[in-house]
Specification:
By secondary structure, the protein is mostly helical. The chain is built from 25 helices and 12 strands. It comes from Mucilaginibacter gilvus.
């Protein structure tokens, strides 16, 4: 163990620039030696779970850049009470720096996990897996495959943040020289190739499904590995990493270019093939797009609400009942209270049990389509210019908007996914203990006198919109908060279908599977197929017929379908579109106003700060100083 400890200290100091003490937990608690850790099957299984440990800690969406920096949800600053770590949300306000980076997954600081430590754990597991004599050959193969997947995923997580990274293929021997310990960043294509090779090696020995769900739900399967491989290859093919001229000057100390200089169209073909293979594997395992099946206490459910609930419960349904869920993390999503508006008098009395602080910007709401299945600024039947005018809820919209309630005109005639995703002033809130059609809740958010309106800075929704999809309709906020838990998906079938549609378009244009798989998702969402929608309702009907136009369509489709699921922030980065999204001020309604005409005036909450350098994370300055072989990312 002294050898291991000494090695860990050296690699930490030179690679991470941190102290040794916190990195000594390379074996399970109360384990004195590696021999003990791998003396039998049970102890080795405990070590396997330490390899999973960091992965399970990634359930915290507030530490996920795909969630906090997407612009889909914003969070107030300057709170007098801090109910959660604001580091990730604060990055939109320009707090990122190289001296002390936020969400630092390189060193495990500032709400980031120490991922290099996790990779070392995986290497230790692989190096010692042969020691337990009572471990069967079949189980050994599966464990090796799981650890190789985890090792690949940890490298991939770092790559999405930092671009080229050191590849920790094996743990260095204690006799390694100083220069060997001073690791270098590998060229980007080499990083992607290594990650894919690990996933390929893992896939062969992973099970197609989890049969013992009580004990093993959350462990890696073949559909998970193939789906992540497709995502990795699509990331490699995307503009941020595929011939991006912004990083032509990024070279290591030996002058080796770390980014590929030329665009490679074949990368999209590899991604498309991988996505199709993943779909085939998932469907063979019995997966399909989820549809809501009403429980016995819901005796009447109109088709409009069924579509809304099919979208909402595709995220919040229990894993074992959700036919769409490919992968989620075992810890449950802990922030339903932040996404729920106050709907009752008791919820106001118990205001601090549910702060309602996750706020959805106006731009996110307006991203969702009209009920014709096209963007509201393209729909020739939609009054886009008059969208902020006032309209009263009527019988036709009664399952979406409270009757006789005055709200913004743009809340009418929208696609079911808008009503599934977003809670808004006047919007019906199915659930919270009420499921009878004649007695449903609706949100009232105008001014300080309403239940959901602003009370103080610590319970303020700063835009007037809530991320409704993140709340299980069975959860109840009244006399306290009674949560019906769920696991936030990392990958679900609808996202995989849209990934394949995106890749297929890049390979062959908007034909064949590119159309087929986007339409599978749109059909479940209750809107017309993509060709029909643009041909009949869009003022730019030719958009659907070109590769560039269809690219815009499928990008928006992914942002809509996967909204609030910690995916759009990563997509917008790999597409190099996040800077455009965040170039506009973050706006909401004038939430302190009580009259509709005054409330429905766009109000700038803050102006986000995002420049070209923010596409990649900075490596901490101290790490660059300690390890002379490391180079900083461009623009930092």
């Amino acid at each position: 163990m002294k050898k291991i400890s000494k090695f860990v200290c050296v690699i930490v100091v030179l690679l991470l620039g941190g102290s040794c003490k916190k990195y000594l937990d390379v074996a399970p608690d109360n384990t004195g030696t590696l021999e003990y850790a791998f003396r039998n099957r049970n102890e080795a299984e405990n070590y396997l779970f330490t390899c999973y440990a960091t992965l399970q800690q990634l359930y915290d969406a507030t530490a996920n850049a795909g969630f906090t920096t997407s612009g889909e949800i914003v969070y107030p600053n300057n709170l007098t009470k801090h109910p959660l770590d604001e580091t990730g949300f604060a990055l939109l306000r320009g707090t990122q720096n190289s001296n002390n980076p936020g969400l630092n997954f390189w060193d495990g600081q500032n709400h980031g996990q120490a991922i290099f430590r996790s990779i070392r754990r995986c290497n230790i597991m692989l190096e010692n897996i042969d020691k337990p004599t009572d471990l069967s050959v079949t189980e050994k193969k599966r464990w090796i495959a799981e650890v190789k997947f985890l090792k690949a995923y940890y490298h991939y997580y770092l790559l999405r943040l930092y671009g080229p990274i050191p590849l920790i293929k094996t743990n260095l021997d204690i006799t390694a020289s100083t220069e060997e310990i001073k690791v270098k960043r590998a060229p980007l294509d080499e990083c992607f190739a290594y990650i894919v090779s690990l996933l390929d090696e893992a896939t062969v020995d992973l099970p197609p499904v989890i049969t013992n769900q009580v004990q093993e739900l959350g462990r890696i399967t073949r559909p998970i590995a193939l789906s992540i491989k497709a995502e990795v290859l699509a990331t490699a093919a995307s503009p941020l990493f595929n011939g991006n001229p912004d990083y032509n000057s990024l070279k290591d100390k030996d002058g080796i270019a770390l980014f590929p200089a030329a665009y490679d169209a074949n990368k999209w073909k590899l991604a498309a093939d991988a996505a199709k293979a993943a779909i085939t594997e998932c469907e063979a395992a019995g997966m399909s797009l989820h549809t809501f099946i009403p429980p016995a206490n819901i005796t009447v459910l109109p088709d409009s609400l069924r579509k809304v609930l099919s979208v909402q419960t595709a995220v919040t349904e229990r894993w074992e009942l959700n036919t769409e869920l490919i992968w989620a993390l075992n810890p449950t999503f802990p922030f339903q209270g932040y996404a729920t508006p106050r709907l009752t008098n008791k919820s106001v009395i118990n205001i601090f049990s549910n702060p309602s602080l996750f706020a959805v910007p106006l731009a996110t709401q307006e991203m969702f389509y009209s009920d014709k299945g096209v963007p509201i600024n393209e729909d020739k039947t939609f009054d886009y210019a008059g969208r902020y005018s006032i309209k009263t809820g009527d019988n036709a919209s009664r399952f979406y908007i409270a009757q006789n309630y005055a709200t913004a005109k743009e809340h009418f005639n929208r696609e079911p996914r808008m009503y599934a995703n977003i809670g808004f002033d006047g919007g019906i809130w199915f659930g919270n203990g009420k499921v009878n059609l004649g007695d449903l809740f609706h949100v009232e958010a105008r001014g300080i006198e309403t239940f959901a309106g602003p009370k103080d800075i610590n319970t303020l929704n700063i835009t007037g919109y809530w991320p409704k999809k993140l709340v299980n309709y069975l959860s109840v906020y009244d006399d306290g908060f009674i949560e019906s838990s769920y696991r936030l998906p990392l990958m679900r079938l609808a996202g995989l279908y849209l990934l394949y549609s995106e890749c297929a378009n890049e390979v062959n244009g908007p034909t064949g599977d590119a159309i087929t798989y986007i339409d599978k998702v749109r059909t479940r969402a209750g809107i017309p197929g993509v060709v029909s929608a643009w041909t009949n309702y869009s003022n730019t009907p030719g958009k659907v017929t070109t590769k560039d136009g269809f690219r815009q369509i499928v990008h928006q489709e992914r942002r809509i379908e996967l909204c609030f699921e910690a995916q759009s922030g990563w997509d917008l980065r790999r597409w190099k579109e996040l800077q455009n999204v965040l170039s506009q001020p973050i706006q909401g309604w004038s939430v302190y106003e009580s009259q509709p005409a005054n409330y429905y005036q766009p109000h700038t909450v803050f102006t986000s700060v995002f420049g070209l350098r923010n596409y990649l994370w900075p490596i901490k300055d101290q790490d660059i100083t300690v390890n002379s072989n490391l180079v900083q990312n461009t623009y930092w």
